[in-house]
Structure formats: C-alpha cells, structure tokens
Amino acid sequence: MAASNSSKLFRLGRSLVGGLSNNCLGTIRSSCEMMCNDFLSQQQRTFIQMRTNLKVVDNSGAKRVMCIQALKGKKGARLGDTIVASVKEAQLGGKVKKGEVHYAVVVRAAMQRGRCDGSEVKFDDNAVVLINKQGEPIGTRVFGPVPHELRKKKHVKILSLAEHIA
C-alpha cells in the first residue's frame, strides 16, 4: 500500500515538474523571441550608406533613388546630410530622368537622432529631397513631415517648401 502511494506521488510530482518545465521553456522562448525582434529592429535602424534605396518626397519627377556616396562621415549619412544619389525610378515627363545622378538631402531617416531637449526623432522610412549643385531644391513642393534640424544644416528653402515641420 505504501509503495502504490509513493508511485502515485512520484507520478504527480513528475507531471507537476513537467508542466513547470514546459511553462518555463515557453517563457524563455518568448523572451528570446522578444530580444531577437528588438535586435532586428535596432539592426534595421542604421546609417544611410552606399546602395541604400531612398524614397523621393518632392515633385522633381523621381520616385526612388539609390545612395552612391555620403558626402560627410565615413559611416554614412544621417538626418540633414547631403548625399550623391542615382535615380532608379522616375515619372514620365518629370524634371529628372532615370539614370541621372543628383545631390540629395536626407529629410527623413529611420535612424533615431537625439535633440537638445533630450527627446529623439525618428521616422518610419528613409526619404530625400533632390537638390542642385547650389543647394536649392529641384522640385517646388515637399511632401510629408520634415524635421526642423534642417535649419541648422542651412536647408531653409526645403523647410519653406515642406507642408509639415516636425
């Protein structure tokens, strides 16, 4: 009789431990997945470097450009920096054509940038405005939000054309 009670207790204890271990493994698995997702989201938020595809947010006629060279910094370009870009997609009848090389100013970047007041600004996409050699925008309108940090980088004309300043 004592042997049968001990075997029942052993089975009960084993099932409890098994349930706990499965529960612990699930918790460990979910925390590992969360860390991996955080790592991937941080990994996607990098500098704008060579061969990065960017959205064009002005009415110059270009839709998408590819970064050829960041003009400042070894790692790449950030918010407000000037890059050299090649037009990959363009609208018919626009001011710029596919395959042309232009300067561009980064007006939205997925990488976060700290502000003086301690807050940080980051956007969902990477976007540029095409400019000429004198630093004036080629288009006459700028779509979407543009950060006010461009004022420090002497791109006041882009700020004046923007519909929303963030």
TrEMBL record:
This is Ribosomal protein L14. The keyword rRNA-binding applies. It holds the Pfam family Ribosomal_L14. PANTHER family: 50S/60S RIBOSOMAL PROTEIN L14/L23, LARGE RIBOSOMAL SUBUNIT PROTEIN UL14M. GO terms for biological process: translation. GO terms for cellular component: mitochondrial large ribosomal subunit. Belongs to the universal ribosomal protein uL14 family. Keywords: Ribonucleoprotein, Ribosomal protein, RNA-binding, rRNA-binding. One of its GO terms (molecular function) is structural constituent of ribosome. InterPro entries: Ribosomal_uL14 (IPR000218), Ribosomal_uL14_bac-type (IPR005745), Ribosomal_uL14_CS (IPR019972), Ribosomal_uL14_sf (IPR036853). It comes from the Eukaryota. The keyword Protease does not apply.
